[in-house]
Specification:
Number of domains: 1
Oligomer: single chain
CATH class: Alpha Beta
Mean pLDDT: 91
CATH architecture: 3-Layer(aba) Sandwich
Bound molecules: flavin mononucleotide
Distance between the termini: 11 Å
Shape: globular
Number of helices: 7
CATH superfamily: NADH Oxidase
Strand content: 5-15%
């Protein structure tokens, strides 16, 4: 059961720009030494700013880390060991994505519905950022394998802001090009039920 969209019309949809952007984005784990202009980061942050969120609470915060010594400390102290994250040192910018925990959405909303909305919100905002960076020809990688408390201290956030992920960003090094996501994802019919 494939649902109401036939394969033929799906391939027509594949020419849409959102699809092409989503398919162009892959996790980039090697960067060259070209600096990333602040304007490019600002563009991605502006695209992220437009993300929806539960009750429009916008519970995300960003720390854009360009200083080499702080980047090095984030990688060596703020990343959890075991995944071989040394490649991140080639990224000229690390963007720390944090989540503000507040009473309304985390306690009241989550208590009633069982859904912890700010986690959802932060995922959406991060992907807005990543897709905007992709549009500019930049590579990114989500890093969730972090020590939130250490990262918070290093970037100087208060206790109520919890670091959720670090996004590496830079111009991709030439060489290895991973398969596009369209060739590495489960088919829709394994992910969707049409009712
Ligand atoms: C929330 C999240 C956390 C991730 N954490 C890491 C990580 O700590 N280290 C890493 O190398 N990749 C990490 N990734 C990247 C995934 O491994 C990658 O997205 C997945 O394998 C699919 O590959 P693709 O991004 O190239 O399409 C993370 C991705 C997401 C969305």
């Amino acid at each position: 059961m494939t649902g109401p969209t036939s394969d033929a019309s799906f391939s027509a949809l594949a020419h849409g720009w959102v699809y092409r952007l989503a398919d162009a984005r892959t996790s980039c784990r090697a960067y060259d030494d070209r600096p990333v202009p602040d304007e490019a980061i600002r563009y991605a942050l502006e695209c992220a700013r437009l993300a929806p969120s539960a009750c429009n609470r916008q519970p995300w915060r960003w720390a854009v880390v360009r200083k080499p010594e702080l980047r090095r400390r984030l990688i060596h102290e703020g990343f959890l060991p075991g995944l071989g994250l040394a490649w991140a040192e080639s990224a000229p910018v690390l963007c720390v994505l944090g989540m503000v925990r507040d009473l309304l959405t985390h306690r009241v909303g989550a208590g009633i519905s069982g859904v912890d909305y700010p986690w959802v919100d932060v995922g959406i905002v991060g992907e807005h950022f990543v897709l905007a960076a992709t549009e500019l020809g930049l590579g990114t990688c989500w890093i969730g394998w972090i020590r939130p408390r250490v990262v918070r201290r290093l970037v100087g956030w208060p206790y109520r802001v919890r670091p959720v992920a670090i996004l590496t960003i830079g111009y991709p090094a030439t060489g290895h090009t991973p398969l596009p996501p369209s060739q590495r994802r489960r088919p829709l019919n394994e992910q969707v039920i049409w009712l």
